[in-house]
Design brief:
It is built from 5 helices and 7 strands. By secondary structure, it is an alpha/beta fold. It starts with 5 loop residues before the first helix and ends with a strand.
């Protein structure tokens, strides 16, 4: 079960199939549907799943946010479900604090909605991307998540829109 539409998934998968040379990550997992799809399509690649698994974190919320603290708390035992997949590594906690020594990411799906979460994630990920890698930003130009664009542009990125409400930063 994923909230992503087929167009967004196809855009990510197309990049993933282009000579993958690194790790895959999803930051903001929710019910694990997208992570599962990535896992099924890249069986020989390590896929990292980063999430609080407790809903949107209070420490990243600002009053301008549309979404609320605790929203997007998984409806299932997502950690157990993902841990049953041989190529998925779950990292519970607030990203990027939950990030280990992982580096050389080929494909990242960044779906954290909040400005502070997006900003902090991009600050760390930019130095851990593989050459030719890409970060797919969910909720790009969606009126309920203006912080996604704000964070990316504040850091000097010029994401390219792939489909409605999704953009990519290429490395």
């Amino acid at each position: 079960m994923t909230l992503l539409n087929q167009e967004k998934l196809v855009a990510m998968l197309k990049h993933g199939f282009k000579n993958p040379t690194g790790l895959i990550a999803e930051v903001g997992v929710f019910n694990g549907g997208c992570t599962g799809i990535l896992s099924d399509n890249f069986l020989d690649t390590k896929i990292y799943a980063y999430d609080t698994f407790e809903g949107m974190p209070e420490s990243c919320w600002v009053k301008e946010e549309h979404h609320h603290v605790g929203e997007f708390k998984p409806e299932l035992d997502v950690i157990k479900m993902l841990n049953n997949r041989k190529n998925v590594i779950v990292r519970k906690g607030i990203f990027p604090e939950s990030l280990g020594e992982e580096t050389n990411f080929w494909l990242v799906h960044l779906d954290v909605d909040f400005y502070v979460s997006t900003l902090n994630s991009l600050k760390v990920l930019k130095d851990r991307m593989a050459k030719g890698g890409a970060i797919f930003l969910d909720d790009w130009d969606w009126p309920n998540c203006p912080g996604v664009r704000k964070a990316a542009e504040e850091l000097g990125f010029k994401p390219v829109q792939t489909v409605e409400h999704q953009a990519v930063i290429n490395f």
